[in-house]
Every structure is written in C-alpha cells, then in structure tokens.
Amino acid sequence: MLKIAIVGTGWFADKHADLLTARDDAKVVAFVGTTVEKAEKLALRYAGSQAFDHLEQMLDTCKPDAVYICVPPMAHGYIEETLIARGIPFLVEKPLGIEEESVQHILSLVESKKLITSVGYHVRYTDAAQTAKKLLETRKIGMAIGSWMGNMPGVSWWRKQNGSGGQFIEQTTHIVDLVRYLIGEVDEVYAVYAQRHMHTVHDHVEVADVGAVTLKLASGAIATLTNTCMLPFGHKAGLELYTDQGVLEIEQSRYLKHIEKTQTTEFFDAANPYERESEAFLHAIKTGDRSLILSDYADAVKSFRVTTAALQSSISGLPIKLRS
Ligand SMILES: NC(=O)c1ccc[n+]([C@@H]2O[C@H](COP(=O)([O-])OP(=O)(O)OC[C@H]3O[C@@H](n4cnc5c(N)ncnc54)[C@H](O)[C@@H]3O)[C@@H](O)[C@H]2O)c1
Questions:
Q1: Which residue among 7, 122, 168, 288 is the one 20 to 30 A from 215 at the CA level?
Q2: Pocket of ligand 1, beta carbon within 6 A
C-alpha cells in the first residue's frame, strides 16, 4: 500500500484525496496546510490521515512514498526543493509556479536526481485528446483556435498577479499544453491583454480579464488562443484544430467532435482523466516504468514557458521568440 501525503488543503487537495481513497493500492496518510486547523478539516474526512502545518515534520513522521502538491501558483518552490532533496516523487498541480527562474531551478534539481514527477495536465489523459492525437497522425494541421472563457474564481490569490500569474498562466495553460501535446513545440508568442471589467467589480484585482495570444509553431502551423474571466458564468474551454481533412473540436476537455466533409463523429470520454493521471504516476512509483506519465516536470516546463512568454509579450508589446 503506497503512503501518499498531500500538500494543500483546498478544492483540489480534496479532489485528489477522494480519488486516492477510492484506490486499493494507496492511502492518504497526511495533509499539510498553512495552518494545522485547515489540514485537520481535511484529515478528519480521510480516516487514518494526520494534519500538519510543517512539511518536514510531516515527512519525518509519515515517511510518504509520494506527495501530491496542490497549492496555489505562488506557493511553489520550497515544497518541491524539500521533496527533491529527500528523493520523494511528487505529482504537482499546474501551473508549476509564476516565476521562470525558480521553475528552471527546480527542473535542474529534478533532473539531477532523475526523480519521478507528474504534472496535473489531466487533459492529456482524456479520450478526446488521445483520439485527436491518433487522428492527427494522418492529417495535416493548418491552425488551431483555443479558448478559456469564463468567470473569475473567488479565491483571493487568483486575482493577484504575483498570486496566480494571471488567467493565461493559471487556467489557459491547459489549452497551451494541449496545443503542444497535439501539434508540437512553440517557437514564438505574441500577446495582448487588458483589464476591462473585473477590477471595477472587486478590490485588488491586478490580473488582466481579457487576452488574445498568437503562437507560431515549429511545424509551421499557427494557433490563436483567447481567454476571459469577466463573464458571470463559465462559458467554454477547448481547442479547435483545422486540418486538411476537416475539423477536430475538443470541448471542455471531455468531448471530441470530428467534422469531415460528409459526416460528423462524436467521441465521449469513457474514463476519468484524473484517475488515469494518478494511475500512471502510482504505476511509475511501484514499477519504475514512467511510460504512462503523459506530462512530467521537464515537459510541463515547456508549457509554463509559453505562458510566461505570453505575459512578457503583453507587457512589452513585442513578440517573444522561444526557439531561434
Ligand atoms: N488540473 C486541474 O484540473 C485543476 C483544477 C483545479 C485546481 N488546480 C490547481 O491546483 C492548485 C490548487 O488549486 P485549488 O483550487 O485547490 O486552490 P484553493 O485555493 O482551493 O486551495 C489552495 C490551498 O493551498 C493552501 N496553501 C497555500 N500555500 C500553501 C503552502 N505553502 N503549504 C500548504 N498549503 C498551502 C491554501 O491554504 C489552500 O487551502 C492550483 O494551482 C490550481 O491551478 C488544477
């Protein structure tokens, strides 16, 4: 039975704990929060788990086989460094952070230890993404159009630039990662962002609430991704791929529509992608076989880099080259 600890005590810590508890090869042994009280709230719900407000104390006491990191973007760094120093594999929720230097530093530490890592780009594990990937083997992509159009999450860290990094880094990163997974690497990024509305509704909103980002891909294909968080409701998130044989529409990461000249085919997800993500990670820990992990730290850094380049471009007004 694998002993899993979870750092973070919010919505997604709870979601991962639920999925882990349903498995018969793993149990959640600890939660680490910013306060013991917060960690206790979750620990009470998962029998046999303990609450901590200090990561190293938890590691010394519980000796977990792996750790799930479910903290906001600004809280990354020390947690990963501590786990890497002790050689403890981790699954970390996207985004990897908000700041390039710290993420690159963690990458170099991960690589020096050859540590097993997984990053929460769960969309890769959907049947929609997998089916699209297969269909694309025999199609030529011209361009992609992606979006994440919704409302602003209620948590305060999300609204601060140095809390979440902004919507493109925090949410739309899923679509950026899907573009990389299906079409390949990004060479150049150009972005325009604006604050149109949300800063007039709530105090201390620093992040842009509309954005449009253009990507040049190494293959020669192009992509345009748009996002907004100024709607009063979640509207849509997804990616459309325009190919020589028709259109592939991945919607809300759970559903694929394949539009050809004479017919339209729909594919629905048969399994929970978060379960598959955990299965791949835990399988790697048990067997050493990492082949089922579809996004590890090194790969996720490339998606992160595209999103931080977009922020840089939105500030400078200039395109940012990622590869020459
Ligand atoms: N893959 C997905 O589909 C998905 C979905 C939701 C959230 N997420 C990601 O998960 C992360 C957490 O999101 P959430 O919705 O759970 O946020 P949340 O605000 O509900 O919870 C975050 C928790 O982390 C705690 N925290 C902050 N700093 C900490 C630290 N240093 N040590 C321990 N705990 C700390 C906070 O007290 C809070 O309880 C975010 O990066 C988010 O993008 C991913």
A1: 122
A2: 7-13, 32-34, 38, 70-73, 75, 93-94, 120, 122, 155, 170
